[in-house]
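ok trying this again, last paste got cut off
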Amino acid sequence: MNITLITVGKLKEKYLKEAILEYSKRLSRYCKIDIIELQDEKTPENASSKEEALIKEKEGEKILSSIKDNMYVVALDLNGKMLSSEEFSAFIDDLGLRGNSNIAFVIGGSLGLSKAVLNRADYKLCFSKMTFPHQLFRVMLLEQIYRGFRISRGEPYHK
């Protein structure tokens, strides 16, 4: 299985980079993992809703250009479906059984995802109604993917 994280914004914090490397290494036993970091658009402090929409559109274009035709796209979206860790594990397994071996998880920038990206998504997933920093969210997503593989194989990790 091939898993791609398409993310907007660069990681700056060393501890987050180290966590990403650790989970990427752990995941390499189960899948091929690729992380695509896209440059975020600078948002003025008092941006109007029109300016914010334009920024989301620009970031959305970058995201869409990174998505291959054969990818099953999972958009991380506050209006998406919430799953337990067990349900998430079954979701990934089911995708593989249905022949979707190229899965792209898309994490937008600080303003979220454009309508075009949400329309391209095959599935919308919500981790929580809370808002998280998108840099930290990468670690959380990789951890849940790793947990999902461990659960589906009956390996000790999930408690």
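PB: full thing came through this time. The chain has one domain: 2-152.
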